């Protein structure tokens, strides 16, 4: 027996996998990788004070972050030094090469975002965002922030949407008030 509809979770998983692969390829073409992009992005936008905070912001464990930082330091993208006030803490800072890599990968990420949005009206993109928020809420998570917090300057944008348990369209179909 086949289901009448493809389960939404399967559709979402397939779409996420295809989009993730394409984004990875765009970053590789720009001379980087997703882990590098996430580290560079968070170093530029989060003002993290140490490696522990950076790992949390990126959404990885500290040992995984250390692996990426070792490789990025060897490439000359960043430096690590002991904090003078607390020798147990490593301070991570971008080098000039790291700044250049950030700019390259940021440009690739922006171009990829434009590619994703191509041909989709703004109202539908807003609705998609709302639907994704609802799906996230339906599975019991309110994850916010990492690794993208700070990517968008929200001070010049419209106020953030409030999370709804059901979209306006769903309430209208069910006969509820919008």
Structure description:
- The chain has 178 residues and is mostly helical.
- The chain folds into two domains: 1-118, Arc Repressor Mutant, subunit A, CATH 1.10.10; 122-178, no CATH class.
- The chain has seven helices and two strands; from the N terminus they run ααααββααα.
- The chain has a two-stranded antiparallel sheet with strand order 1-2.
- β1 and β2 (90-94) form a beta hairpin.
- The longest helix has 22 residues, at 8-29.
- The model is unreliable at 149-178 (pLDDT under 50).
CATH architecture of the largest domain: Orthogonal Bundle
Largest sheet: 2 strands, antiparallel
Task: Give the percentage of residues in beta strands.
Answer: 5-15%
CATH class of the largest domain: Mainly Alpha
Number of extended strands: 2
Instruction: Note the run of SSEs as H and E.
Output: HHHHEEHHH
What is the global morphology?
elongated
The CATH homology group name of the largest domain: Winged helix-like DNA-binding domain superfamily/Winged helix DNA-binding domain
Indicate how many domains the architecture comprises: 2
Broad structural category: mainly alpha
């Amino acid at each position: 027996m086949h289901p009448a509809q493809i389960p939404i979770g399967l559709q979402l998983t397939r779409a996420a996998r295809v989009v993730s692969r394409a984004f990875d390829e765009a970053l590789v073409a720009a001379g980087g990788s997703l882990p590098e992009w996430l580290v560079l992005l968070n170093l530029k936008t989060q003002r993290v004070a140490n490696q522990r905070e950076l790992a949390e912001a990126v959404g990885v464990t500290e040992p995984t972050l250390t692996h990426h930082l070792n490789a990025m330091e060897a490439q000359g993208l960043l430096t690590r030094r002991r904090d003078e006030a607390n020798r147990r803490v490593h301070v991570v800072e971008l080098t000039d090469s790291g700044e250049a890599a950030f700019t390259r990968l940021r440009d690739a990420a922006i171009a990829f975002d434009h590619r994703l949005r191509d041909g989709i009206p703004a109202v539908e993109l807003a609705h998609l965002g709302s639907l994704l928020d609802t799906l996230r809420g339906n599975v019991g998570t309110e994850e916010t922030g990492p690794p993208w917090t700070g990517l968008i300057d929200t001070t010049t944008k419209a106020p953030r949407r409030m999370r709804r348990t059901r979209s306006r369209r769903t309430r209208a179909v069910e006969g509820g008030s919008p």
